[in-house]
């Protein structure tokens, strides 16, 4: 039996870059990312507030007034603090960050007691990009759906596709963006609702078939100022379907692979 032909698309993907370093080879097989797993990953988390990019806080150490600092979580998800240097904070709760700082400061201070006071919650924004009337940040007062975020951005532009949006969310453990296709309007009627978290990106594609290459070039330009992701973008198979105009035809396998510091390849086996 003949092996199915492979379509090879060369994609410009600066999103795979860290600020000043090359990218190691990255390969993700997203076929194992089932629809149920995708939706589960995009539902609100129970528990305390989780720190995100842009959040500002005041950190102080009891009896060490010279260590009081006002810090802001940078696009890489980290802060800089005296004595301990860079600390990864994205995805941590305040209590987890406090424990981490106390553990690292214990090398220099006897039984350090750290206080953390959040002063600004920038990560409560979501970003609506692409074919909407007013692209930009939408402030969250509660969990909202992609459809509500699009409405808050002025609704669809005349050239928008209005049955699907692409939702991007950062995974702090793997340092990647996860991407899924979220059905909108009537297509979302019988499906479990996707709920947005602070820092999520909602991308509304054009009504015409844009293709994966066009999407990657466009989303790279839009996303780079908002979030620094060290290892790239992991797309669920249905994202490729939507971009190629085959939303109801399953894709057997999708791989996103970074090959150099300046390029990436998406290998999509033909059906």
UniProtKB/TrEMBL annotation:
Predominant cellular place of this UniProt entry's protein: membrane
Signal peptide annotation: 1-21
Places the protein is found: Cell outer membrane
Bilayer topology term: Multi-pass membrane protein
Keyword entries, A-Z: Cell outer membrane, Ion transport, Lipoprotein, Membrane, Palmitate, Polysaccharide transport, Porin, Signal, Sugar transport, Transmembrane, Transmembrane beta strand, Transport
UniProt domain SLBB: residue ranges: 125-204
Cited Gene3D superfamilies: wza like domain
Start and end residues of each Polysaccharide export protein N-terminal domain: 46-118
Gene Ontology annotations for the cellular component aspect, listed alphabetically: cell outer membrane; pore complex
Protein name, entry field: Periplasmic protein involved in polysaccharide export
Organism: Desulfovibrio sp. U5L
Upper classification of the organism: Bacteria, Pseudomonadati, Thermodesulfobacteriota, Desulfovibrionia, Desulfovibrionales
């Amino acid at each position: 039996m003949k092996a199915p032909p492979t379509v090879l698309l060369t994609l410009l993907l600066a999103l795979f870059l860290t600020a000043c370093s090359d990218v190691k080879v990255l390969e993700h097989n997203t076929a194992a990312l089932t629809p149920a797993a995708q939706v589960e990953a995009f539902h609100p988390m129970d528990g305390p507030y989780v720190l995100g990019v842009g959040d500002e806080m005041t950190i102080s150490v009891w009896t060490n007034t010279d260590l009081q600092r006002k810090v802001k979580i940078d696009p890489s998800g980290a802060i800089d603090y005296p004595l301990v240097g860079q600390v990864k904070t994205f995805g941590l709760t305040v209590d987890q960050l406090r424990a981490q700082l106390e553990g690292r400061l214990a090398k220099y201070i006897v039984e350090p007691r750290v206080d953390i006071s959040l002063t600004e919650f920038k990560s409560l924004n979501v970003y609506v990009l692409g074919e909407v009337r007013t692209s930009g940040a939408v402030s969250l007062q509660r969990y909202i759906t992609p459809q509500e975020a699009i409405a808050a951005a002025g609704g669809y532009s005349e050239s928008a596709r209005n049955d699907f949006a692409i939702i991007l969310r950062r995974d702090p453990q793997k340092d990647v963006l996860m991407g899924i296709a979220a059905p909108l309007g009537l297509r979302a009627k019988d499906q479990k609702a996707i709920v947005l978290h602070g820092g999520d990106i909602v991308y509304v594609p054009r009504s015409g078939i844009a293709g994966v290459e066009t999407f990657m070039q466009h989303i790279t330009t839009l996303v780079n100022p908002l979030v620094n992701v060290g290892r790239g973008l992991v797309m669920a198979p249905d994202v490729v379907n939507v971009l190629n105009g085959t939303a109801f035809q399953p894709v057997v396998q999708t791989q996103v692979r970074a090959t150099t510091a300046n390029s990436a390849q998406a290998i999509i086996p033909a059906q």
